[in-house]
Specification:
heterodimer, A: about 210 residues, eight-stranded mixed beta barrel, about 10% helix, B: about 280 residues, mainly beta, 3 helices, about 15% helix, disordered N terminus
Chain lengths: ~210, ~280
């Protein structure tokens, strides 16, 4: 199930329109098709008005959120919390570095496409240093496990551990919603320069699902 | 991928629309446009003709088609009672409707403020929305006076008249929306919960007739308009960078084991942690 579909399904779930809404979902991402002259757009659905007396019958697959990250080889076990966007436009992270945030607007681990992004603070003035300080010790091949709210666990294998300057972080890759399924665990690294906004680098661990 | 979700009616409509697309292409078409059609005239099942060819047949009130790729250009649109043929009497007619290349348009057959059927093409804004945001657009296509649209009881759009629209990018999430007569708290439609999905445009149409007491909402969503966050912070303390030796880190990490040591370490790194 693609993020687009999930979004569509959620839109459908959310719009429990008063007795009488016609409901349609469309995608702004179009795919050229070989059909000559006119081609139907990508994922979409049209529906007549739902039965006003019936329950919301448009329920689709529900997103199962991640609840715990385990990287046994580097002794990391962290609670995962849903996170969104901070006022400055950056990904919002839980203030306590003993927990890690999941970018809830992007893919969830069980989804077929895109990057699951987990981001956490390395340390904090208030709480001190967190487990992500050991993230840089991960090596390609090391296993990561993400436990979901339904107690299922999705396992990943580390493919890259890279430190990149924050300015050159490939955001479109990290937050990709349509490419192959990946897990990206992101924290900070490099020099801490408080006159230049703290840590200068992002440490990005990329891992692919173990099938 | 989502084909399973299509209702039989929708599939039938699309098949007709797809087949008709080539046939109704204007002479000098270049690039495609994305076109959806909403039937917002209560009580009448219709056929829709574009440049004399059937675009939609047996089109029922309250139905919004899937988006169809049509060559850009100028279209003469005619809506007739279902089954009356290309030469049937026009319920609504609109000539020289421009569909620009690359545009995303929803053509709405609806009642004007005066209660007479008309066609209004709306251009859909498919520009990206900021990370964490959703776009909400409301279109007044009902035979009804000016309205305010409220979310959580507070006016979001005010004094909206037929056939105008209002739009804003708002925080993603569910809002309880209703439509009231402008400047009053007299609810005309709703409340309805709208789940404004991040990176998605939700377009709400108010249609029908206040006089006939059949005002309704139709909802169209356009997904895939998301943006990425501008970055990922990652540390606010600086403690982890306060020493370079791995052994030092080990000491620091073990610090959690004893409160006293923890305090001591906290003191030693306190200067490094201070934020400007």
């Amino acid at each position: 199930m693609s993020p687009g579909t999930r979004i569509a399904v959620f839109a459908v779930l959310g719009v429990v329109a008063l007795g009488a809404a016609a409901l349609v979902t469309q995608s702004g991402e179009t795919t050229p098709t070989p059909a000559a002259g006119g081609a139907r757009d990508e994922p979409s659905a049209s529906r007549p008005a739902p039965d006003p007396t019936g329950p919301a019958s448009t329920a689709g697959p529900v997103v199962v959120r991640p609840v715990e990250l385990v990287a046994a080889t580097v002794r990391i076990r962290m609670t995962v919390l849903p996170s969104g966007v901070a006022a400055d436009g950056q990904m919002a992270l839980p203030p306590d570095p003993r927990t890690i945030g999941w970018y809830r607007f992007g893919p969830a681990p069980a989804e077929a496409r895109g990057s699951v992004v987990l981001g956490g603070h390395l340390d904090s003035r208030e709480y001190g240093v967190g487990p992500l300080v050991r993230l840089s010790q991960l090596r390609p091949g090391d296993e990561l496990a993400v436990r979901l709210a339904n107690d299922r666990t999705v396992r990943y294998r580390t493919v890259r551990v890279e430190s990149v300057s924050k300015q050159s972080l490939a955001l479109a890759k990290v937050f990709d919603r349509s490419g192959p399924p990946m897990l990206r665990v992101v924290t900070c690294g490099g020099e801490y320069d408080r006159d230049r906004g703290g840590y200068q680098d992002n440490l990005v661990v990329s891992a692919e699902p173990i099938r | 991928m989502s084909g399973r979700r299509h209702g039989a009616v929708a599939v039938a409509l699309l098949t007709v629309a797809g087949a008709a697309a080539a046939a109704v292409a204007p002479a000098h078409a270049a690039e495609n446009a994305t076109v959806s059609v909403l039937h917002g005239v209560p009580g009448a099942t219709v056929d829709v003709y574009a440049n004399g060819k059937a675009l939609l047949t047996n089109f029922k009130p309250g139905t919004l088609t899937d988006p169809v790729k049509l060559p850009s250009g100028s279209y003469d649109l005619k809506v007739t009672a279902a089954g009356t043929g290309a030469n049937g009497a026009a319920v609504i007619q609109a000539n020289d409707v421009e569909v620009p290349a690359g545009s995303n348009v929803t053509v709405v057959a609806h009642l004007g403020a005066d209660g007479k059927p008309r066609l209004t093409p709306f251009a859909n804004d498919t520009s990206k929305v900021a990370a964490g945001k959703a776009r909400l657009t409301v279109r007044h296509t009902a035979a009804a006076p000016a309205v305010d649209v409220r979310a959580g009881g507070k006016p979001v759009f005010q004094d909206l008249t037929n056939p105008k629209e209002a739009s804003a990018d708002v925080a993603a999430g569910t809002v309880s929306a209703d439509v009231v007569l402008a400047g009053t708290s007299t609810v005309a439609i709703g409340p309805a919960d709208l789940n404004l999905q991040e990176g998605t445009s939700t377009i709400v149409y108010a249609w029908g007739s206040a006089q006939d007491k059949n005002l309704k909402l139709a909802v169209q969503t356009i997904s895939g308009l998301h943006s990425d966050p501008s970055g990922i912070p990652g540390g606010t303390g600086g403690q982890a960078a306060a020493g370079d030796a791995p052994t030092w880190l080990v000491v620091l990490l073990l610090a959690g084991a004893t409160g006293a040591l923890s305090t001591a370490v906290g003191l030693t790194v306190s200067r490094a942690c201070a934020r400007s």
